[in-house]
Amino acid sequence: MSRLHKETHLVARIGWLRAAVLGANDGIISTASLILGVASAAASRSDVLLTGIAGLVAGAMSMAAGEYVSVSSQSDTEHADLARENRELADDPVFEREELAQIYVARGVEAGLAREVSKQLMAKDALSAHARDELGISEISTARPVQAALASAATFSVGAVAPLALVLVSPSNVLIPAVAAGSLLFLSLLGAIGAKAGGAGLLKPTIRVAFWGACAMALTAGIGAVVGKVV
Asked: What is the pLDDT of residue 131?
């Protein structure tokens, strides 16, 4: 018999990976778009740089606040469901044991065995058993607002630094194409890293991230150019 070993599954990364990829992606796209929009309006390098820095700070705070609020709402819902389930377990444990058994029966377990499994699991930790198998709440999927907020803010800042660095190193006469091309390269790299971390293929995620980033930057640059001429 082979020795038992602890397995590490990619699904355990869902919580932080989603927030990290979203933060970095938004950091690159929003900051690069701001830079291109302002630069297309014939602004000076110092104005472009100031706009990018302001976008970095505002975006990081917005991402952190947004993630914290949204994930906290999920956490509040989970806690409310758990509190309700705890009351039901206290009021009618027999019904709850049968309810859990029927969940296993629906998954293909023989009725007698399902009732025995339900009985044993509830004897050890009834609330955890119902949280996992009735409510779908587990250690992997549970909401973590602070973790999501910090990950989003940090990765947004990292992503936003990339187009800002391009502004600093690019000659003024090629600033717009340099920022656009460099940002698309960073986005493609981010898509590949996210795909690799999540165990997916590299091509589709990379193309997807680069395509939508290009659309956002092109639209913002176009608006900047039009407004710059009018004003």
From this structure: 83
